[in-house]
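U., I forgot to send this yesterday:
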Amino acid sequence: MNALTSLLAGLLFGIGLIVSGMTNPARIIGFLDLFGKWDPSLAFVMGGALLVGTLAFRFASKRQRALLGNPMNIPTKRDIDRRLVLGNLTFGIGWGLAGYCPGPAVASLATGGSKPWIFFIAMLGGMALFEIVERRAGKPS
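Result:
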């Protein structure tokens, strides 16, 4: 049941990204182009996501178990460290250069273009490189 629920949630998320136009890298680049032809549509999508996420976390923080019975695993770490800042910078630079972040990139694979596939393969390579570096440094990922 958990796998089916995860699949349905992922499909709903992907459909939402496609319907909102967030799988189009030009929209993302347009949002980041503050001094050119700025496209504010991503701000509305982010605002909606923040609203839903805030409500979901408030609801979830009061529960011991998830709706499907699994234990709740809400993150407790709140400190801002070097790894967090460098990870966010890397994510932001990649997002700004390519116009994709992981969710929209995966949803875009179904569109048949080569650019999402190139990004996706590069993303998997970056994830593998991170795992290798973390294991050599002896840190849990």
